[in-house]
Amino acid sequence: MTGLLVVEDDPDLGLALRTVLDRAGYETVLAEDGQAALRLLFAERPALMVLDLMLPGLDGWEVLDRTRDMTDLPVLILSGRTSPAERVRGLRAGADDYLTKPFDTQELLARIEALLRRSRPDQWRGDYVEAGLRMVPERRSAVWQGQEIRLSDIEYRLLQVLVRNRGRVVTTEQLLDLVWDSPDGTGRERVKFAVLRLRRRLGGRGASGGEDPLESVRGVGYRFRGR
């Protein structure tokens, strides 16, 4: 049975959603705040998350950001925020779909079915292993040539984006959008200095004397050297 995680702080709506989804054949777990959502996300490893944005404590934006550090599972935002700007922000932040409240139950089920059809079976492969590098999402760290390296949030997200695109050049503009959430492409120097700091963290070159895993492509961007 396919597992779903519903994150909704309104207990009545949360119960209604769980009832609808259970009747549709899903196995649903419910979280009423952001911290509980992240605990259940890691413990249950659901196939899809339905996420409200207005949550107590850790809000939906932070839940979405941390979710993307661990998994590529589909995320459907279900929110009372109806403006086009909010929908665009949600999709750019990593959500796969955005549905506003109030909503039609059949439309919700159809959107969930569509997202599950497109999801990848390896979406929960949390530890990326490539050329002596292993990323550990739950600790926001990396193991490079056998040594664990603690990273800042920006350093972790930067390395994560490069590793996920291993072997391909990621432009400076793309990095600004994905790592710094700066889609207008301003702040190119931030990328340059963040890459320099990350190189220092990785020791410049591997402990075995191999090539620097981060390659600069002049005038374009950066690439993680895959196998």
TrEMBL record:
Domain Response regulatory: 3-116
DNA-binding region: 125-226
The keyword Transcription regulation is assigned to this record: yes
Entries under PROSITE patterns matching the protein: OMPR_PHOB, RESPONSE_REGULATORY
Keyword annotations from UniProtKB, A to Z: DNA-binding, Phosphoprotein, Transcription, Transcription regulation
Domain OmpR/PhoB-type: 125-226
A Pfam family per the record: Trans_reg_C
Record-given protein name: Response regulator transcription factor
Source organism phylogeny: Bacteria, Bacillati, Actinomycetota, Actinomycetes, Kitasatosporales
